[in-house]
């Protein structure tokens, strides 16, 4: 196997090249090879300077995250190497390009000089993995850029542009050409000018942030579920108040503690789950992918407009089609308003707004879609209408075009057949607001061609979505599980738990919003219509006691925030407990023969909301609707506000213990009866408990 690191000599300059694709991550093998190459430089006394650069798309983008999972993980060897590099008596220059992240930026900061291509971005994103920079980033960055900037970078995990990094003192030079050549030129200059070597660890300790550390500690203390935040502040405080060597010890201690933390394990799980979700098991790498140069969207409403913005943002020309000039104009006006709001916040320039609006055109005739490579329908949620629209699209679209539906509840197989070319049809289930929400469920219908699926998965990444494949079933992965969660929330309400208690319990687990507030925000009417329609279609129980609360609120015109009342009363967007709602819930409970209880604990609420949801997730796996447990975790964390520090519902299930979940499901079945069948442990849950097999290792064999 070729070494991932090579050393060459060009004149009096040594060059170390790291080549460990895709992102040149630091692994034990890379550390060993780097040590060897550096020793070679040390041994060649005739050389004047050393340049470290990377092959491929980026400089080192971090430590190899899978290395953290192995029992022999220890950053000490790497840290010692960085100290050796910094101690060199001859200049060492880091030549940067791409995304210089984590252990990559830490390497760069141990060098004496940093030159970066203009498009380079730099960051310490460890906090997103529940960690802190463990190779002296917490000590070197404050010395280079100041404590305030270092804290902002490490607590946000965000990347900064090379020009900002230059202003902040993090790098020394921005070059126009290639990093390697610029690095060499720089080395020559430093040698000729006999510049004194600038060792970051020897720089004066930085001043504290202008407004002190208290604010940072308070902010971190408010998020105890993310222990990395406070640990980062403690490390920077040590950088300010103590010697470099002492700071190093503080960082090592904090890093080791975080590595074993549950939050970090969960966040690392999600990092890999999100990337794994993009892989489709039965698809060969060679599936020919189509270029998507132009998109058409039918229906310029809430969703159509939001979807269009995704493509305009990615520089893809998009046609929006609606039935009337007025509807079209409303849609385009709303898009402009959204862009103007981003511009007002300084996120876009006026030129960018115009450039994006310039990519959008309106149309009233289907012929305008004839040259589109992808056409997405987002008209009203009505099967007959959608069948007609799909047929019309099928008639005008070019043969290779892909046709997608944004339906949230209808049968994608039926729509695929209506389009007349089922192999080129799939679902693209965006979430509202579609220009903001990260999740995209890509629905693979029975006849969807592999190449069509692969093309859409790649496109999803290009427009910044986190895509997960789902099979066809009611609600796909996310809403099918949501249904279980919402129906149990309703039973709790009818038994006498107030909305604020139900929400508080869900939020105590870390949900962004409890079920009642969420439905009030999304619209009780929207939820009720789905329940009514799907019950008619036989996909949900027709029993009037089933989802009785949402039906009743709909009947009463309590649609949630938009009508000022739903599960709560609203003062603007602020929910206020409403005795009128309690009276409605009480009456419903009585009329459906549901016994009232006053001993419902927070723990019971959490178990009853989440254990059936997990059980449904296991059914979804068993039926082959989702490929793997991690896909479900991605759906729930990226689209439903499930806490990332718990890794998603399936990862959480494993932490709780599958046997315990099965036992509690049986307990509630005994307590409450099982009229709707969701307390019965799923067959997969039973099998996993019996065989004591880990869910994380589960893979469909069929
Ligand atoms: N370790 C292992 N694999 C990594 C990796 C890492 N740090 N970063 C990226 N990869 C892999 C991905 O899994 C993916 O593999 P796949 O193609 O087999 O699925 C491949 O590299 C490409 O990644 P993306 O699909 O994410 O490509 P993008 O171009 O969209 O993004 C990136 C590239 C900006 C580098 C992004 O991958 C990223 O943000 N990576 C994480 C960077 C990070 O968190 N670094 C810090 C690590 S912790 C650390 O360094 C600790 C130290 O302080 C001790
Ligand atoms: P909407 O009512 O805001 O927009 C629908 C648009 O379609 C309107 O502009 C209407 O004029 C247009 N339209 C109707 N018939 C048409 C036809 N024959 N040809 C062209 N245009 C036509 O609805 P919304 O909320 O945007 O929903 C659209 C779709 O997105 C539905 O299938 C819905 O289930 C789905 N969806 C909605 C989500 C939401 O939260 N609103 C979330 C995910 C999916």
From TrEMBL:
Keywords: Fatty acid metabolism, Isomerase, Lipid degradation, Lipid metabolism, Lyase, Multifunctional enzyme, NAD, Oxidoreductase, Peroxisome. GO terms for biological process: fatty acid beta-oxidation. Residues 294-470 form the 3-hydroxyacyl-CoA dehydrogenase NAD binding domain. Pfam families: 3HCDH, 3HCDH_N, ECH_1. SUPFAM superfamilies: 6-phosphogluconate dehydrogenase C-terminal domain-like, ClpP/crotonase, NAD(P)-binding Rossmann-fold domains. Residues 475-570, 605-692 form the 3-hydroxyacyl-CoA dehydrogenase C-terminal domain. Pathway: Lipid metabolism; fatty acid beta-oxidation. PANTHER family: 3-HYDROXYACYL-COA DEHYROGENASE. This is 3-hydroxyacyl-CoA dehydrogenase. It comes from Pseudoduganella namucuonensis.
């Amino acid at each position: 196997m070729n070494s991932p690191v090579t050393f060459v000599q060009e004149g009096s300059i040594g060059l170390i090249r790291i080549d460990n694709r895709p992102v040149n991550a630091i692994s034990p093998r890379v550390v060993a090879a780097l040590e060897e190459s550096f020793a070679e430089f040390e041994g060649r006394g005739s050389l004047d300077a050393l340049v470290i650069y990377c092959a491929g798309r980026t400089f080192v983008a971090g430590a190899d995250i899978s290395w953290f999972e192995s029992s022999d993980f220890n950053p000490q060897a790497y840290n010692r190497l960085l100290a050796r590099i910094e101690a060199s008596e001859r200049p060492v220059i880091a030549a940067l390009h791409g995304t210089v992240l984590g252990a990559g930026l830490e390497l760069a900061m141990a060098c004496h000089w940093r030159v970066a291509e203009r498009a380079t971005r730099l960051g310490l994103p460890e906090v997103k993995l529940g960690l802190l920079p463990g190779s002296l980033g917490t000590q070197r960055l404050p010395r280079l850029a100041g404590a305030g900037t270092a804290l902002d970078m490490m607590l946000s995990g965000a990347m900064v542009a090379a020009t900002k990094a230059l202003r902040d003192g993090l790098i020394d030079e921005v070059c126009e050409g290639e990093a390697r050549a610029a690095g060499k030129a720089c080395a020559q200059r430093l040698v000729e000018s006999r510049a004194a070597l600038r060792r970051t660890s020897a720089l004066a300790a930085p001043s504290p942030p202008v407004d002190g550390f208290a604010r940072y500690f308070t902010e971190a203390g408010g998020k105890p579920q993310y222990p990395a935040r406070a640990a980062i502040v403690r490390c920077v405080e040590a950088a300010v108040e103590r010697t470099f060597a002492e700071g190093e010890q503080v960082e090592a201690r904090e890093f080791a503690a975080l590595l074993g933390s549950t939050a970090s394990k969960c966040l690392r799980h999600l990092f890999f789950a999100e990337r794994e979700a993009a892989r489709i098991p039965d698809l060969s790498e060679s599936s020919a992918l189509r270029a998507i140069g132009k998109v058409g969207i039918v229906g310029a409403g809430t969703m159509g407009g939001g979807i269009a913005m995704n493509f305009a943002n990615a520089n893809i020309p998009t046609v929006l089609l609606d039935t009337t000039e007025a509807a079209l104009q409303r849609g385009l006006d709303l898009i402009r308003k959204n862009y103007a709001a981003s511009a007002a916040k300084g996120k876009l320039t006026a030129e960018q707004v115009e450039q994006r609006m310039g990519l959008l055109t309106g149309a009233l005739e289907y012929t305008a879609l004839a040259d589109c490579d992808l056409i997405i329908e987002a008209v009203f949620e009505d099967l007959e209408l959608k069948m007609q629209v799909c047929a019309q699209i099928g008639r005008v679209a070019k043969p290779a075009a892909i046709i997608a539906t944004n339906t949230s509840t209808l049968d994608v197989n039926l729509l695929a057949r209506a389009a007349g070319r089922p192999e080129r049809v799939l679902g693209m289930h965006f979430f509202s607001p579609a220009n903001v929400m990260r999740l995209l469920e890509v629905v693979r219908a029975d006849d969807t061609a592999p190449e069509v699926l692969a093309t859409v998965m790649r496109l999803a990444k290009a427009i910044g979505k986190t895509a997960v494949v789902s099979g066809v079933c009611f609600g796909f992965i996310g809403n099918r599980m949501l249904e279980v969660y919402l129906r149990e929330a309703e039973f709790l309400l009818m038994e006498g738990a107030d909305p604020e208690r139900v929400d508080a319990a869900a939020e105590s687990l870390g949900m962004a919003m409890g079920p009642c507030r969420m439905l009030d925000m999304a619209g009780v009417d929207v939820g009720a219509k789905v329940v009514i329609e799907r019950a008619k279609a036989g996909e949900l129980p027709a029993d009037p006691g089933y989802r009785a609360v949402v039906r009743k609120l709909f009947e009463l015109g309590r649609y949630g925030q938009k009508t000022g009342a739903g599960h709560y009363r609203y003062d603007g967007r602020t929910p206020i407990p409403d005795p009128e709602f309690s009276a409605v819930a009480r009456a419903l409970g009585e009329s459906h023969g549901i016994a009232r209880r006053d001993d419902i604990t927070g723990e019971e609420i959490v178990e009853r909301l989440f254990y059936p949801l997990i059980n449904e997730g296991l059914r979804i796996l068993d039926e082959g609707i989702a490929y793997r447990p991690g896909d479900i975790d991605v759906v729930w964390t990226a689209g439903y506000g499930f806490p990332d520090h718990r890794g998603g519902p399936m990862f959480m299930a494993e932490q709780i213990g599958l046997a315990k979940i099965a036992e509690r499901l049986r307990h509630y079945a005994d307590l409450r009866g099982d009229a709707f069948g969701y307390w019965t442990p799923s067959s997969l849950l039973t099998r996993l408990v019996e065989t004591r097999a880990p869910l994380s290792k589960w893979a469909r064999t069929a």
